[in-house]
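User: I'm writing a short report section on ligand binding and want a predicted complex to refer to. Could you take this sequence and adenosine monophosphate and write out the structure as tokens? A short remark afterwards would be nice.
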Amino acid sequence: MIGGGQLGRMLAWAGLPLGLDFVFLDPSADSPASAFGPVIVAPFEDREAVFKLAGAVDVVTYEFENLAAHLLREVAAARLVLPPPLALEVSQDRLLEKQLFQKLGVPTTRFVPVSGRDDLEAAVATTGLPAVLKTRRFGYDGRGQAVAGDAALLDAAFQRLMGAPGGLILENHVSFERELSLIACRDRAAEIRFYPLAENVHQQGILRSSRVPADVDAEVSRAAMGYARSLLTHLDYVGVLAIEFFLKNGKLIANEMAPRVHNTGHWSIEAAETSQFENHLRAITGLPLGETRLRGEALLVNAVGRLPEIHPLLELPGVHFHDYRKAPRPARKVGHVTALAASAAELEKVMPKLLVQMPFETVS
Ligand code: AMP
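Assistant: Sure. The structure tokens for the complex follow:
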């Protein structure tokens, strides 16, 4: 596994009952996944280290996106790499990603690539205002983007973000009603399974909570699954793929996708028959996928900046705690909890008591 963060940690934990062994590549010797297997300590772009990893395993996977895609392609000539490097390349670049959505008929925001100051005016004519200026690459948790309501603010955003490697993209700012995500999985035999749609709340671009099942019309779920199916099939995808959507006027608008297990699917550890982590591993190792049905209603809440106190949290019924063993730092996800309940009414009784205990610290 390239990357040894919390996703790597939860993947490896899910792999233990399957009898899988893991080797990680991570710049840090004591990364969250290091409790679960040896770590090759090296930068992600270290060619020799990536090949050393590939030589030690049957299949290479990755748990985050800021990798050198060309290196992954090179490795894929010698070792099975899943999800396929093409999926990573597309997801790394917001422009390629939105162009693929368009090509496959997946509705997305209006967007225009911006390579210089002179492009801005024409771009705004297409996107309208307010607009969101984003770096095409290396953005996460709301970093590398700015919302602008008028030409002056847009200019300021441009001054701040210009020079980002890979250039910029301007998008229409969607006044969405809700944010949803779909976790999908495709195995080596092209069998596809979907988890129920989750409804997500972001604060300052960082995921605060995810609730399943999202309370949406069957039509919306069907549409989301159709879009995911097109993407999975087009990319000849193997593993878990996450797609984030806005819901506006009852219609889905795809924002982005991630070629990996996803924060908006962490509830699946306790709340689904088979977790997203286990299904990703089943898929990439050639095993059949597990059932994705829910075991109840669930809410995931992230601990951002620092961990909560465990004792009072675990007094709440149905609450499960996950500590990623990361040093606390503003805006950093250091853990999460999932509350599982037999009904929406029961879950809603726990929710306020849970939310009030979960830190969300983004500035020191
Ligand atoms: P992203 O990095 O694209 O996932 O953006 C992080 C969050 O910023 C999203 O989950 C939304 O809450 C918000 N956001 C991003 N793009 C847009 C957009 N085009 N319109 C409205 N909100 C957006």
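A remark for your report: Residues 218-234 form the longest helix (17 residues). The pocket of adenosine monophosphate is lined by residues 109, 132, 139, 142, 171, 173-174, 179, 202, 205, 244, 255-256 (CB under 6 Å).
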